[in-house]
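Key result, reporting period 2: structure in, sequence out.
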Protein backbone atom coordinates (compact mmCIF):
# COMPACT_ATOMS: atom_id res chain seq x y z
CA UNK A 1 0.00 0.00 0.00
CA UNK A 2 1.36 3.36 -0.99
CA UNK A 3 0.73 6.07 1.58
CA UNK A 4 1.32 9.64 0.53
CA UNK A 5 1.66 12.52 2.92
CA UNK A 6 -2.00 13.54 2.43
CA UNK A 7 -3.56 10.19 3.25
CA UNK A 8 -4.06 8.40 6.55
CA UNK A 9 -3.87 4.62 6.90
CA UNK A 10 -7.19 2.94 7.58
CA UNK A 11 -6.25 1.23 10.88
CA UNK A 12 -5.22 4.54 12.46
CA UNK A 13 -8.51 6.16 11.47
CA UNK A 14 -10.54 3.23 12.81
CA UNK A 15 -8.67 3.28 16.13
CA UNK A 16 -9.34 7.00 16.54
CA UNK A 17 -13.02 6.63 15.61
CA UNK A 18 -13.45 3.72 18.03
CA UNK A 19 -11.84 5.64 20.88
CA UNK A 20 -13.92 8.77 20.30
CA UNK A 21 -17.13 6.74 19.95
CA UNK A 22 -16.46 5.05 23.30
CA UNK A 23 -16.19 8.44 25.02
CA UNK A 24 -18.78 10.49 23.11
CA UNK A 25 -21.47 7.84 23.27
CA UNK A 26 -24.68 9.79 23.78
CA UNK A 27 -27.78 8.74 21.87
CA UNK A 28 -30.64 10.61 20.29
CA UNK A 29 -32.91 9.97 23.29
CA UNK A 30 -30.37 11.77 25.54
CA UNK A 31 -31.19 15.09 23.85
CA UNK A 32 -34.34 17.22 24.06
CA UNK A 33 -34.37 17.97 20.32
CA UNK A 34 -33.08 16.51 17.09
CA UNK A 35 -31.24 19.78 16.38
CA UNK A 36 -29.14 19.48 19.57
CA UNK A 37 -28.38 15.84 18.79
CA UNK A 38 -27.23 16.71 15.26
CA UNK A 39 -25.04 19.53 16.62
CA UNK A 40 -23.49 17.05 19.07
CA UNK A 41 -22.80 14.55 16.26
CA UNK A 42 -21.28 17.28 14.09
CA UNK A 43 -18.98 18.46 16.90
CA UNK A 44 -17.86 14.87 17.54
CA UNK A 45 -17.17 14.30 13.84
CA UNK A 46 -15.20 17.57 13.61
CA UNK A 47 -13.02 16.49 16.54
CA UNK A 48 -12.56 13.02 15.04
CA UNK A 49 -11.60 14.42 11.64
CA UNK A 50 -9.13 16.86 13.19
CA UNK A 51 -7.48 14.05 15.17
CA UNK A 52 -7.27 11.85 12.08
CA UNK A 53 -5.62 14.65 10.10
CA UNK A 54 -3.36 15.71 12.99
CA UNK A 55 -4.85 19.21 13.31
CA UNK A 56 -4.79 20.86 16.76
CA UNK A 57 -4.29 17.50 18.48
CA UNK A 58 -3.14 18.83 21.86
CA UNK A 59 -6.18 21.08 22.35
CA UNK A 60 -8.58 18.34 21.23
CA UNK A 61 -6.98 15.77 23.55
CA UNK A 62 -7.36 18.23 26.46
CA UNK A 63 -11.04 18.80 25.65
CA UNK A 64 -11.60 15.04 25.40
CA UNK A 65 -9.98 14.50 28.81
CA UNK A 66 -12.08 17.29 30.33
CA UNK A 67 -15.29 15.90 28.79
CA UNK A 68 -14.41 12.43 30.06
CA UNK A 69 -13.92 13.74 33.62
CA UNK A 70 -17.12 15.77 33.60
CA UNK A 71 -19.30 13.04 32.08
CA UNK A 72 -17.73 9.92 33.58
CA UNK A 73 -21.00 8.58 35.04
CA UNK A 74 -22.92 9.16 31.80
CA UNK A 75 -20.17 7.47 29.76
CA UNK A 76 -20.13 4.42 32.04
CA UNK A 77 -23.95 4.20 32.02
CA UNK A 78 -23.98 4.34 28.20
CA UNK A 79 -21.30 1.65 27.96
CA UNK A 80 -23.20 -0.56 30.40
CA UNK A 81 -26.46 0.03 28.51
CA UNK A 82 -24.76 -0.95 25.27
CA UNK A 83 -23.29 -4.09 26.89
CA UNK A 84 -26.74 -5.01 28.19
CA UNK A 85 -28.27 -4.53 24.75
CA UNK A 86 -25.56 -6.68 23.18
CA UNK A 87 -26.10 -9.38 25.82
CA UNK A 88 -29.86 -9.26 25.19
CA UNK A 89 -29.29 -9.54 21.44
CA UNK A 90 -26.95 -12.48 21.97
CA UNK A 91 -29.47 -14.17 24.25
CA UNK A 92 -32.28 -13.53 21.76
CA UNK A 93 -30.18 -14.93 18.92
CA UNK A 94 -29.71 -18.16 20.90
CA UNK A 95 -33.48 -18.51 21.26
CA UNK A 96 -33.81 -17.74 24.97
CA UNK A 97 -36.48 -15.27 26.08
CA UNK A 98 -35.21 -11.88 27.15
CA UNK A 99 -36.28 -10.63 30.60
CA UNK A 100 -37.59 -7.08 30.56
CA UNK A 101 -38.00 -4.60 33.40
CA UNK A 102 -41.78 -5.22 33.39
CA UNK A 103 -41.26 -8.83 34.48
CA UNK A 104 -39.66 -7.86 37.81
CA UNK A 105 -41.38 -7.68 41.21
CA UNK A 106 -43.89 -4.80 41.33
CA UNK A 107 -43.98 -4.45 45.15
CA UNK A 108 -41.06 -2.04 45.39
CA UNK A 109 -40.42 1.31 46.96
CA UNK A 110 -42.09 4.04 44.86
CA UNK A 111 -38.88 6.12 44.98
CA UNK A 112 -37.04 3.28 43.34
CA UNK A 113 -37.25 2.37 39.68
CA UNK A 114 -38.62 -0.90 38.42
CA UNK A 115 -35.18 -2.43 38.62
CA UNK A 116 -34.69 -1.60 42.31
CA UNK A 117 -32.30 1.30 41.82
CA UNK A 118 -32.96 5.03 42.04
CA UNK A 119 -34.24 6.54 38.81
CA UNK A 120 -31.49 7.39 36.34
CA UNK A 121 -29.08 4.76 37.63
CA UNK A 122 -28.05 1.76 35.58
CA UNK A 123 -28.73 -1.69 36.99
CA UNK A 124 -27.72 -4.88 35.13
CA UNK A 125 -30.54 -7.09 33.86
CA UNK A 126 -29.05 -10.13 35.62
CA UNK A 127 -29.65 -9.84 39.36
CA UNK A 128 -26.47 -9.86 41.40
CA UNK A 129 -24.21 -9.30 38.40
CA UNK A 130 -21.64 -6.57 38.73
CA UNK A 131 -21.21 -6.40 34.99
CA UNK A 132 -22.82 -7.85 31.91
CA UNK A 133 -21.19 -10.57 29.85
CA UNK A 134 -19.96 -9.12 26.62
CA UNK A 135 -20.59 -10.95 23.36
CA UNK A 136 -17.38 -11.32 21.43
CA UNK A 137 -18.64 -12.18 17.95
CA UNK A 138 -18.82 -15.42 16.08
CA UNK A 139 -17.87 -18.73 17.59
CA UNK A 140 -14.72 -20.42 16.29
CA UNK A 141 -15.31 -22.05 12.93
CA UNK A 142 -14.34 -25.70 12.35
CA UNK A 143 -11.29 -26.34 10.23
CA UNK A 144 -11.75 -28.35 7.04
CA UNK A 145 -10.37 -31.86 7.06
CA UNK A 146 -7.94 -32.76 4.32
CA UNK A 147 -8.66 -36.18 2.89
CA UNK A 148 -5.04 -37.23 2.50
CA UNK A 149 -1.66 -36.80 4.04
CA UNK A 150 -0.83 -33.50 5.64
CA UNK A 151 2.68 -33.33 4.23
CA UNK A 152 3.07 -32.72 0.48
CA UNK A 153 6.20 -33.68 -1.36
CA UNK A 154 7.71 -31.72 -4.27
CA UNK A 155 5.91 -33.76 -6.93
CA UNK A 156 2.52 -33.11 -5.35
CA UNK A 157 3.25 -29.36 -5.10
CA UNK A 158 4.30 -29.28 -8.80
CA UNK A 159 1.12 -31.10 -9.86
CA UNK A 160 -1.04 -28.75 -7.82
CA UNK A 161 0.54 -25.69 -9.41
CA UNK A 162 0.14 -27.13 -12.93
CA UNK A 163 -3.46 -28.17 -12.33
CA UNK A 164 -4.25 -24.80 -10.79
CA UNK A 165 -2.80 -23.04 -13.81
CA UNK A 166 -4.76 -25.21 -16.24
CA UNK A 167 -7.94 -24.59 -14.27
CA UNK A 168 -7.38 -20.87 -14.84
CA UNK A 169 -6.85 -21.36 -18.59
CA UNK A 170 -3.07 -21.19 -18.58
CA UNK A 171 -0.71 -23.68 -20.13
CA UNK A 172 3.05 -23.72 -20.75
CA UNK A 173 2.44 -23.63 -24.52
CA UNK A 174 0.47 -20.41 -24.12
CA UNK A 175 3.40 -18.59 -22.52
CA UNK A 176 5.87 -19.85 -25.16
CA UNK A 177 3.57 -18.80 -27.97
CA UNK A 178 3.09 -15.33 -26.47
CA UNK A 179 6.84 -14.86 -25.94
CA UNK A 180 7.55 -15.76 -29.58
CA UNK A 181 4.79 -13.44 -30.86
CA UNK A 182 6.14 -10.54 -28.82
CA UNK A 183 9.71 -11.20 -29.89
CA UNK A 184 8.98 -11.47 -33.61
CA UNK A 185 6.36 -8.75 -33.50
CA UNK A 186 8.97 -6.23 -32.44
CA UNK A 187 11.34 -6.96 -35.38
CA UNK A 188 11.36 -4.59 -38.31
CA UNK A 189 12.30 -6.07 -41.62
CA UNK A 190 13.46 -3.72 -44.30
CA UNK A 191 13.37 -4.77 -47.88
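The corresponding designed sequence is given below.
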Amino acid sequence: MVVTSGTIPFPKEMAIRKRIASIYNKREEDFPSMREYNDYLEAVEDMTWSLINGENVAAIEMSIAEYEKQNYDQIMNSRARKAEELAAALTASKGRPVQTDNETDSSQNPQMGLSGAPHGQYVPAIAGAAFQPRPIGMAPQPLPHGGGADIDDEEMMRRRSENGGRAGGWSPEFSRKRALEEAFGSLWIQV
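Helices lie at 10-23, 34-53, 57-70, 72-93, 154-167, 172-185. The chain has a mean pLDDT of 75. This case is discussed further under Risks and Mitigation.
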